[in-house]
């Protein structure tokens, strides 16, 4: 289950807020709509009804979607302009862009295939049996990061890959279509099930 | 000709624990075994091993120890602890070729020559190459501490792993066992593909 993204949309009209929520809901991410600007990672601001720029300190470290009738009303260059009246295609395009950027920033290998030159020191990572299995696979073939994510917890996988990158035993290359992660043999699943570390 | 029980009974997979005297083989097996470990220990002669008596170890394995991990009523992993002394080499010859992998426990306080010697001995008996070196008694677990063991593995052309392991910690010994199982699964799959 992914962590919800907190969104604050305080000064929007009821219609715009409803429309935005329905458009955001089209995405697979989970959204937590909050009134607390401090807690939110994303802000949606109606620039036309917003009088004071001071209401938005620290906006530089957040993703801000600015709704406005005219681009010239944008108060900050790093805010993302969305023209009013809202159109779903435009909002979805903006969401795609920002989410891809966040993903790439968080994990430089998210669009990569990865493999390992040697075994990590697995006991140090308190690794699950599945992760140990996949580390062995990565010694023999590159596998797309996103395929690995479907089989092992992200936090544990990232910890191993970050260590591998830091100690220079990670091989990373752009993702291709041809790699496939082989399923864990059923015969070993019983051991896995008994020993979920 | 060496007997190959694991090929006769695919539901029983064997794993060997080897290493120098006092490194923690018996402890490691007891840590993960689902049954009371069957052993054949004898008292250490005080005339021969004063240091070991002083360290509190009074027994040593003279044939082998046996533990089991039971994954179902029928499927089992047999864990063999084999003594390291040369005079028990016949035990290696009998058991190691029939295993799916070997955990070689080494004391970090020993010189790398010890590791070299054990890897050379093992090469004669473990053609499958599924090997985990478990380095014990590390005062500080770090990449640098494991690097010499990895270098020796590479020198010996072995594709095994080097882990920092405390034989008393269940999760850490399990990591070694699971890694061996994963190595074996991969080699088995490759063998089937090659056929």
Question: How is this structure best described in words?
Answer:
The complex is a heterodimer of chains A (197) and B (195). Chain A has 197 residues and is an alpha/beta fold. Helices cover 35% and strands 18% of the residues of chain A. Chain A contains six helices and eight strands; from the N terminus they run βαββββαβαβααβα. Chain A has a five-stranded parallel sheet with strand order 2-1-3-4-5, covered by helices on one side. A three-stranded antiparallel sheet of chain A has the order 7-6-8. In chain A, α1 (14-24) links the parallel β1 (5-8) and β2. The radius of gyration of chain A is 21 Å and the shape is elongated. Chain B has 195 residues and is of the alpha/beta class. Chain B has seven helices and eight strands, in the order αβαβαβββαβαβαβα. Chain B has helices spanning 5-8, 25-32, 50-54, 89-95, 112-123, 143-155, 170-194; strands at residues 12-18, 41-43, 59-61, 65-70, 76-81, 101-107, 131-136, 161-164. In chain B, α5 packs parallel to α6. The chains are: A alpha/beta (197), B alpha/beta (195). The A-B interface holds A 118-119, 121-124, 126-127, 129, 132-133, 135-137, 139-140, 167, 182, 184-185, 187-188, 190-192, 194-195, 197 and B 69, 71-72, 75, 77, 141, 143, 146, 150, 159-165, 169, 171-172, 174-176, 178-179, 181-183, 185-186, 189.
């Amino acid at each position: 289950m992914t962590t919800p993204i907190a969104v604050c949309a305080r000064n929007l009209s009821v219609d715009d807020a409803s429309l935005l929520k329905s458009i955001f809901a089209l995405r697979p991410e989970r959204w937590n709509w909050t009134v607390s600007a401090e807690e939110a990672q994303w802000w949606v601001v109606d620039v036309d009804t917003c009088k004071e720029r001071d209401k938005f300190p620290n906006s530089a470290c957040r993703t801000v979607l600015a709704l406005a009738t005219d681009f010239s009303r944008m108060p900050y260059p790093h805010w993302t302009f969305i023209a009013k009246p809202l159109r779903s295609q435009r909002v979805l395009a903006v969401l795609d862009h920002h989410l891809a950027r966040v993903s790439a920033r968080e994990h430089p290998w998210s669009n990569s295939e990865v493999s390992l030159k040697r075994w990590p020191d697995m006991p140090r990572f308190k690794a699950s049996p599945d992760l140990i299995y996949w580390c062995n696979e990565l010694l023999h073939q590159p596998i797309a990061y996103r395929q690995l994510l479907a089989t092992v917890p992200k936090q544990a996988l990232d910890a191993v890959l970050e260590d591998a990158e830091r100690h220079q035993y990670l091989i990373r290359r752009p993702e291709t279509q041809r790699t496939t992660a082989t399923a864990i043999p059923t015969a070993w699943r019983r051991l896995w099930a008994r020993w979920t570390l | 000709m060496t007997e190959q029980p694991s090929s006769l009974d695919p539901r029983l997979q064997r794993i060997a624990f080897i290493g120098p005297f006092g490194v923690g083989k018996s402890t490691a097996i007891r840590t993960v075994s689902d049954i009371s470990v069957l052993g054949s220990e004898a008292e250490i002669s005080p005339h021969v091993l004063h240091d070991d008596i002083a360290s509190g170890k009074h027994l040593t394995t003279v044939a082998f120890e046996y533990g089991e991990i039971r994954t179902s009523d029928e499927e089992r992993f047999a864990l063999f602890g084999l003594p390291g002394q040369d005079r028990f080499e016949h035990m290696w010859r009998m058991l190691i070729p029939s295993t799916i992998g070997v955990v070689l426990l080494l004391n970090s306080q020993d010189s790398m020559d010890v590791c070299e010697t054990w890897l050379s001995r093992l090469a004669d008996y473990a053609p499958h190459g599924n090997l985990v070196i478990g380095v014990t008694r590390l005062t500080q677990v770090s990449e640098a501490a494991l690097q010499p063991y990895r270098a020796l593995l590479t020198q010996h052309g072995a594709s095994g792993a080097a882990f920092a392991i405390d034989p008393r910690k269940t999760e850490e010994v399990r990591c070694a066992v699971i890694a061996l199982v994963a190595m074996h699964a991969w080699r088995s799959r490759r063998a089937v593909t090659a056929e």
